[in-house]
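Hi R.,

Here are the chain sequences for the assembly we discussed:
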Amino acid sequence: MNEVRAMRVLLVDDNEMGSELLAEFLALSNLETRCAATGGEALELVDTFAPDAVLLDILLPDMDGYELAKRLRERPNPPRIYALSGLARHERQDAINNIFTGWIEKPADPDALLAILHEAN
Amino acid sequence: MTQSDTLGLLAVKGVQLKVFCQIFPVLRHEVLGPLSSASLAAAMLRQAPEGASNEAVQQRCERLAGDLAEMLEESVGVVRELEGWLSDAGATTPCGDLLQECRKLMFSHLLLSRHGIRWPEQVVHADVPVFSTRYLVLAWLLCLLPMVPADAHLELDASEPGVWRARLPEGGGAEQPMAFNPQEVELLATAAGWRLERQDRCWSLHLPAASSA
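And here is the predicted structure of the full complex:
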């Protein structure tokens, strides 16, 4: 019998404590998670971890989240990409919104976040 | 204080407020970061991992409560620092640190603007007043960026003592409405004891003599 693989979520945020907490929260809901603190780390991890979804902060130390999302989208079988940001969605141009599967404003309700991830899976 | 002085001071405050509005999204992002983590920690305190022993649950609660306290403390620190945008406490900072902070503050403005800034790798050391210099540097950059051609970079040079230069690449011209006009940058520069020198493709900020010494 085939075992159903847990949904894999890559968290990209330079706030490591926040990222680890979110990873723990998602793991309790049986999601498999990895954390990356920079865009570079995320690009390295995405090949080996093959996430179903990526939650990324827009303000990263080495590249902006938009640039990272574009580079993730260029890969074969790209994951769903959600911006998780303190920047409000309305402040961004349409072009930036279109590159993300969704835009989640911080602070995100953890249960709503889970629902978004499961809904799209 | 004469009426002219009062009006001059008001004009400076007005330009500073315009700068503040431009970088507000990044400041809000900074405030929300630790609060977002704190709200997650609070939600997790209500969860109990299945099958965990009482001792493990207790340890987890203590750890999360510690994380929560740390993140709330961080939030308080970030909110308190906002005061530094409204009143001048007289603090100074090394030029390199100030430019690094401005780099972060310009983030949301640059996002998808099709313009970039090449920040200087080498910055000659000098201590500058945080309050007035931060506003001045941001106004300087925000005024210049619309003159940068699409997909090109404004290049900053702080490698010479006493002067910071911003070089515009060839081509372009104003493609977008300018958020600031050069007189507003000059106003902030003069009020803070700096001098703005405008050439065709290069705008230089000359540090106050006390800072560049």
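Chain B has a mean pLDDT of 90. The radius of gyration of chain B is 22 Å.

Let me know if anything looks off.

Best,
T.
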